[in-house]
Amino acid sequence: MTDHVLIEADGGSRGNPGPAGYGAVVKDANTGEVLAERKAYVGIATNNVAEYSGLIAGLAAAADLGASTVDVRMDSKLVVEQMSGRWKVKHPSMQPLNAEAKELAARFSRVRYEWIPRAENSHADGLANEAMDAGTEKKPEAPKTVKQDRISPVGWTGATGTPTKLLLVRHGQTAMSVEKRYSGRGDVPLTEHGKQQAAAAAKRLGSMEGLVVDGEAAPIIASPLIRTQQTAQAIADALGGRVETHPGLIETDFGDWEGLTFKEAMDRDPEFQTDWLSDTSIAAPGGESFDGVHRRVRKARDELIAKYGGRTLVLVSHVTPIKALLRMGLDAGPSLLFRLHLDLASLSIVEFYPDGNASVRLVNDISHLS
Question: Catalytic: which of 100, 171, 246, 288?
Fold first, then answer.
């Protein structure tokens, strides 16, 4: 464990917005030894989004190393001034990234931000460019023009470009959901009623325009757990498509609370569960925090947009990942997790635009179940 670390972070976009990537390096502040490197392609984004993503990756790596004191050096004046509290965060697309970075920074006893010239940030800059190079080596096919089932609200939001439209479907009923038990990584199948719910959701999607173009079904991506795979397969059968799997869409790991009811978990860990319900940075015992889920789902979203940008996708997932995607679309804080209800086999729709804007079109629709 290293107590005092230095983070150098950078991000770039070839087009602004355009193909973007970030790089971050964590060093021992006393010796200069490189302790961790992080880099990733983030899809179509702006320079500022990439810069913030690099900072978030660096802070997360420093936390993993057990650091308590952090010095951050970046050549982004905007990020340094906003994180130092001297500049306001005015742009809606920056506010959730700023909030996420501050949540991570709050874990350390001290974080100090310093602006440096680009020439002094060559290590992180090199990692960011490597990420952009890797992400653009294989150019994706131009997205096909599809007929949307509704008119996109570009005019009054100011959003530009063709959005990536995500149809978010929660899985059907399981025995765990009937008994209202924590059901995270436990791999439980659908009940017979759950299969009927999945079939109803599949019929609903099968009647929607734009999901089958020239005989090709929209991509259907599901969490690896059996309850989502069964729900997704019903949709694939209705559309004539196939199911892909993405691990980033898996449910929260509830750790030692897996399989317990809320009351059983409260009786077992009363003070801890109270803290967990009020602080999204706290993980369930042996499990995963909601902040961790949010970062994981954001990464999955960016990967899917990089691969399928401008198309309509069907994502079959669980309560927390779907709430995370809606939270991103609404540019809302973590309290949304506790205030939004999602029914089994419900449908929600959110669109993400290349310029960082987003539009939530539908939330928790279960009209197909009646």
Answer: 171
